[in-house]
Amino acid sequence: MRFQPPTELLPTSARALEAVWARSTVPAAVAPGLSIDVPNMPQVWAVAPPEGESKQARVLSQADVTGDGVPELLLGSEDTLLRCIRADGSVLWQFEAPGPVCSLWIGELTDADGPEVLVGTGTFPGARPGEDIFILDAGGRQIGRIPSPTTPATANEHWGEKPGAIEVITAVDVDGDAKREIIAGSTNMHLYCLRPDGQQVWETLNYAHRPNNLQLYDVNGDGDQEIICTTNYWETNLYHLNGEYFFRVKGQGPGLAVGDIDGDTITEIVTGSLKGPVALTRYAPGLQFTNFLHAIPGIWAPDPDWQLDTGSDVGAIRLADLDADGKHEILACSRNSLLYALKADGTILWTRGLGDGIRALEVSDLDADGPPEVLAGNDQGQVFVLSSQGQILKQAQAPGLVRFVCAQDLDGDGVKEVLAAADGPTLIAYSLGAE
Fold first, then answer.
1. Which residues, other chains included, contact 40 with Cβ-Cβ below 8 Å and sequence gap of 6+?
2. What is the mean pLDDT of the chain?
3. Residues near 179 by Cβ (< 8 Å), separated by ≥ 6?
4. What is the pLDDT of residues 187-215, one digit of tens each?
5. Do the Cβ atoms of 286 and 351 come closer than 8 Å?
6. Which residues contact 298 (CB under 8 A, 6 or more apart)?
7. CA 2 and chain centroid, separation
8. With contact defined as beta carbons under 8 Å apart, do 404 and 360 qualify?
9. DSSP, res 27
């Protein structure tokens, strides 16, 4: 192994927040955006940072960390804080990392009581080194810390010599022992598989550039999940659970969706790029690689089955059956102001203009009526609810650029509220209100 597990744990940084953060009313920002005559969603609650602070929201996750059957919301940002927020808008706990909170995973990792939280961190100019992985218990207390791994230079590659920010993270049982290992993607262009005590299981080159999305899916239908990792400006790499590279896609992140989209039992991989295209590639077993370095000279990968150039960054991709035909459609949001709904063959089902810079996207059946609703947020702080046919139904105004949206039934009435994470960072809950 190339590094030793940590011999001691740092003192916990988790602390109660009632005196620092509180439920608050955030004034609606005055910002140019889409002007449309649809009902405004009333604000239920908002959790805002101390006055005068403004940092980028980096990650938003939902998970029942308390075991009461109601998911909490975990919001991480560049201000180095991870907040765990209850369904009523009160802050349950806060963890302070030495650097920006870049990535999260929540689930059962060790024998601790309740789920654990994996926190991947980065660093920024003037900050303490913070490119490590933290393991928290369900109460936000630090129970482990793994230094960001490095990889000694070889004749073939030298990108992993320095530690990098942990931009993506997940956990999965890689060896069949019924215990999960940690999969972490670093800005040093490597993926690392680590045990919770820090012991390294494997590492692999993730060529090229920083990772920006990481998912697990049984791509080849063998019963085992594969690891799919997008990169900022190059291609998307696929690995077996043992770290062996086996397929590559000509398409970048951060947008990523994987599944059998057209119902033919073949996995499709859809990417949405910072360069603009949405691309779909069908998995082809005959084009597998067994050695990643085989792909480097010439950087070969199969051409996409189709590609749609949006002309601007694609922030997110989701799959949903929008027309009740039993097959998924593809939703993609772009900073060109358009939200796209696409069929599996790339045909445009509909588009909707939603103001400049659409970064946030989610799909959820808010009112349990069958068809899903589409949630979106833009750079002007506007939040929208759309029907599955693309009609704008509701809107709201957040105080900053909206990075994430999601939905959750916060009050147990059977109707989900809409949540938006905006830069600040601020998390706001909106009610659908009267029809």
1. 394, 395, 396, 397, 433
2. 87
3. 173
4. 999 999 999 999 999 999 898 889 999 99
5. no
6. none
7. 29
8. yes
9. P
